[in-house]
Structure formats: C-alpha cells, structure tokens
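Review form for a predicted model. The reviewer records the input and the model, then writes brief findings.
Reviewer: anonymous (R2)
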Amino acid sequence: MAKTIGELVYVPSFTSLVSYSSPGIAHQVLSLTEPKYLLVKEEKDDKLGVFLDGDVWYVDKRKVYDVEAR
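Model under review:
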C-alpha cells in the first residue's frame, strides 16, 4: 500500500533500518530495541524513508504498519 509523505507508521521492535551514504551504499544498519512511531519522508520501490532522531532511515515497507486515527 502506498504511503503519503508525513504519514505516521508503526515500526515494531527488532526491525532493521538502514541509512545510506550514497544511493545503494549502506552506511549504517540499526535494529530497533523497542517499537517506534515514525513519519514517512519518502517511498522508494520496496522501502520507506522515515525520520528517526533527525535523520532519514530506510525500512522494508512490508515490515511497517498503518496507524489508524481515532
């Protein structure tokens, strides 16, 4: 399902996020120790760019969940 820039998504614990130094070259890999609600910055193929601690990290979009408004 396509995501909108600024949309809030739920990322479960133990999900891997990757930052890139240049296109296709991974700079860092981080495994979340606790679940997070993160904002979507962009969508690229099978990945979502999300904001975490002021930086953009990429996560497999099959590993995130929609946040329903109440």
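Findings: The chain has one domain: 8-65.
Further findings: The first strand starts at residue 8 and ends at 11.
Recommendation: see findings above.
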